[in-house]
C-alpha cells in the first residue's frame, strides 16, 4: 500500500472549490494543478515546483539558496503579499536565522536577495507575517515566540524585537485573518493570541482560545477547504480545529507528520519524518493524496507548503 493510502484510509472532510491566480506565478486560490514550495535541508534550499512535474532542478520554478551557518537546516517557508515588495518569501532555519527574501526578481535567489533577517535563538521553526501591521512572529522550539515590529511598515530594515512570549515547544505560527488572531502550536497545545498596538508598540497576548494536543505540535496551517478550520499535526496524527468552537477532529493517525496541507479541491499533501537518512526528521518524498508522489534522490524535505500568498 502506498504511503498516501495510510492517510487516505482515515481521512475525514469534504472539499469545496476555488480558482484563480495572481502575480509571479503565486496562486491566490487553489486549483487542481498547483505549485508547492518546499524546504530541502541537504542542499539547504527552498524550491518551488509544479506538483505535476518531477522535483528536479530543471523543473524548479523558483529556488532560494541562503547558504549555511545561521541558515542551515531550513525549517519553514511560506509566501506572503506586501504593498512595497509584492510577494515575499518567509523562512526559518534551525541554524538560528529567520528572515524574508525577494522571490520576484529572478528564478534563482541567494543570500543577497534577503530583505531582512534576525536571530531569535532557540532553534527557529516558523515565521509568520501579521498583515497591515508589518510585524513578524517567529516560533522557536526551545520554548518561545519572538515578535518583530517596524517603525515603518514598508521598510523591513526598521524591524526590531519588541517582545518574547513563552510557549513550550513552539513550532508553528499562522495568522487568522477572519478572527484577527495569531495561532501557535507548541508542546501539547495550540494557543491563540490577540494582537494589539501599532509599530513598536505591537504586542501579543494569550487569549482564552486554546486546544490540547496529545503530543508535540508540529505543523500549523490554514485549511484551504474551510476558512473556519485550522490544521495541526503533532507526534501522533493530524487534526482539524474549529476556530470558533475549538472542537478538534482527528483526520489521520499517522505519526511524525512534519508538514500537512489540504487544498480546497480535497487533495492533501504531506511530509513524514522517515527515521532514516542524514536527517531522520525529514524525507526525500512529498506525498500527494490524488497525484503522483514526488521523490528527490538524496533530499531531506522538512516543510512543504502551497505556493500562495493567501492566509486561508
Automatic annotation (TrEMBL):
Residues 1-29 form the signal peptide. Keywords: Signal. InterPro entries: DUF6528, Quino_amine_DH_bsu, WD40/YVTN_repeat-like_dom_sf. Pfam families: DUF6528. This is WD40 repeat domain-containing protein. The keyword Signal applies. It comes from the Bacteria.
Amino acid at each position: 500500500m502506498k504511503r498516501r493510502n495510510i492517510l487516505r484510509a482515515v481521512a475525514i472532510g469534504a472539499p469545496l472549490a476555488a480558482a484563480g491566480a495572481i502575480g509571479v506565478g503565486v496562486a491566490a486560490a487553489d486549483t487542481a494543478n498547483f505549485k508547492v514550495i518546499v524546504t530541502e535541508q541537504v542542499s539547504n534550499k527552498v524550491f518551488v515546483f509544479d506538483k505535476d512535474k518531477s522535483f528536479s532542478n530543471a523543473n524548479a520554478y523558483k529556488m532560494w539558496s541562503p547558504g549555511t551557518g545561521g541558515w542551515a537546516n531550513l525549517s519553514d517557508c511560506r509566501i506572503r503579499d506586501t504593498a512595497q515588495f509584492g510577494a515575499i518569501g518567509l523562512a526559518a532555519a534551525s541554524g538560528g536565522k529567520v528572515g524574508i527574501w525577494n522571490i520576484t526578481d529572478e528564478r534563482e535567489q541567494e543570500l543577497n536577495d534577503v530583505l531582512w533577517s534576525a536571530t531569535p535563538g532557540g532553534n527557529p521553526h516558523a515565521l509568520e507575517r501579521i498583515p497591515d501591521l508589518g510585524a513578524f512572529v517567529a516560533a522557536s522550539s526551545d520554548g518561545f515566540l519572538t515578535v518583530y515590529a517596524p517603525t515603518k511598515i514598508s521598510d523591513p530594515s526598521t524591524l526590531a524585537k519588541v517582545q518574547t512570549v513563552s510557549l513550550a515547544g513552539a513550532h508553528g505560527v499562522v495568522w487568522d485573518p477572519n478572527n484577527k488572531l495569531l495561532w501557535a502550536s507548541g508542546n501539547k497545545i495550540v494557543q491563540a493570541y490577540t494582537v494589539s498596538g501599532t509599530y513598536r508598540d505591537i504586542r501579543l497576548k494569550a487569549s482564552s482560545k486554546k486546544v490540547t494536543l496529545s503530543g508535540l505540535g508540529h505543523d500549523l496551517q490554514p485549511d484551504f477547504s474551510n476558512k473556519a478550520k485550522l490544521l495541526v499535526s503533532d507526534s501522533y496524527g493530524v487534526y482539524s480545529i474549529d476556530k470558533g468552537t475549538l472542537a478538534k477532529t482527528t483526520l489521520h493517525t499517522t505519526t511524525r507528520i512534519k508538514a500537512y496541507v489540504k487544498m480546497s479541491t480535497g487533495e492533501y499533501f504531506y511530509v513524514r519524518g522517515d527515521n532514516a537518512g542524514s536527517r531522520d526528521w525529514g524525507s526525500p518524498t512529498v506525498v500527494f493524496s490524488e497525484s503522483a508522489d514526488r521523490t528527490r534522490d538524496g533530499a531531506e524535505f522538512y516543510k512543504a507548503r502551497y505556493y500562495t500568498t493567501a492566509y486561508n
